[in-house]
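Re: the pair you flagged

First of the two:
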Amino acid sequence: MKTHLSPLTAAVLAAFVAPAANSQEASTGAPVRADDVTGRDPHAPLQDLIGTTVRLASPKPRDPEPDPGRGAAAPAPGGAQSAITRIVLDADDGTIDWVVIGTAAWLGLPERHVAVPRDALRGTTSATDEKRREFVLDATTERLATQPAFEDEGLAKRGLAALVNEAREAWQRSGGRVDETASPLLAESIRPAPVHARDGRFGAIHEVFSDDRGRRARFVIVRSEGTNWLMPFAALRWTPGDDEARWVIDRPAAALRESGIRYEKPADCLIDPKAAEAAQAAFARSARTSR
């Protein structure tokens, strides 16, 4: 049974539909421009990206057919989907460079996780729920089959930087382009990691907010002695250590409390725009935010 949208809803969706929408199957939802779905709230909890549905774009006509004799995977079945299980961002600027997804639904093999560039994902609205965001991955099953595994065992033995570099090289060999991640960091490591001021421990990361397009970490909430402080992600520096990894803010704790912005969730959004502006201004002289 077809769903009939109101004229207003149809007009709003049409404003976001990409010019290439006709090349996508209806099962992928309504593809939007490369900057993804923009919601009513300009911020979203970073962890909300975990579990977001990912569908594979239909293979383009010019893509060669997989060769079963060489072990290539068969084309993905219609409607098959995966989901984001991990996020890798650049600790220096908060850019989300990679996401980790499972490939079992597309490759017809036991579950195997691989890292794919965030830029290879295009935002869509769900075919069944226009308020729910999904992603379409611009890749063929053949390309996914050549991506190296991204699993806990490899992380423990070789480290995150090695796995990310390996994923980047494999993606480029298959014809893609992706920039190097200077300081790769798993999003799951961000909280509740401790936060240190110039003169000692200040608190811990309580929450991380990305932009609503899921492309960059923008703000963090640091909880210190029962108070939540709103700070730009760029004001913190990730400092790995043998004993304890931590976030560092190059200011005395007293100064942070004196000029900091207390976080209180508004009724209609995650961050009050004036509070976001004030938090940015409070760290305007920071060398990190002036890049």
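Second of the two:
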Amino acid sequence: MIQEEKYPGLRKYIAEEIIPRYDHFDKGHRRDHAETVISQAMSLCVHYDVNPAMVYTAAAYHDTGLCEDRKTHHVVSARIIREDINLRKWFSEDEIETIADAAEDHRASLGHAPRTIYGKLIAESDRLIVPGTVIRRTVQYGLAHYPELDMEGHYMRTVEHLDEKYGEGGYLQLWIPESPNALRLAELRAIISDRARLRQCFEMIYAEETSCASSAGSL
């Protein structure tokens, strides 16, 4: 846990100034996602010789770069950390650089292993491999960013993304052995490989998400 006497006001600053930024992102990256990543990272970091306050901060900031775009959001998140003068109340320049590196290295498609244990903790915590949640977030992202697609188009995009990232030979890698993600990934891959089951899951989620959107638009 974070020592409040050593980092007075850090949790309050992040809760009031950083977490609310997620309210403006797509459904898969709202504040509940940030809070889940923080919780997961704090649970995993007890197994390692790390500074919990740095882990907490990196997790809180990891997706803030979505304010600019999806493709480079991890780089933008790192820049936001480096440019936040408030963080210098609690961390040294070297510590801030480590936090920024961890946020930058969290992206699954990065192409190389995270540079530090902090990066591995944030990357692993961001995986959140709960099969139904992964599929729902994929559908939500598609609806938010590709509104021109019909249902079949969204299904094809969902399958393509799931195969590329989570399927056998996909680019997602796991870094922390204490994480439950390995078993969950196996469960997700079983769904992905069973196209009839995947289609059924997709159609249920798609109907729920588009129904919610229609209801909100009619208010």
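Residues 10-127 form a domain with the Hypothetical protein af1432 fold (CATH 1.10.3210.10).

-B.
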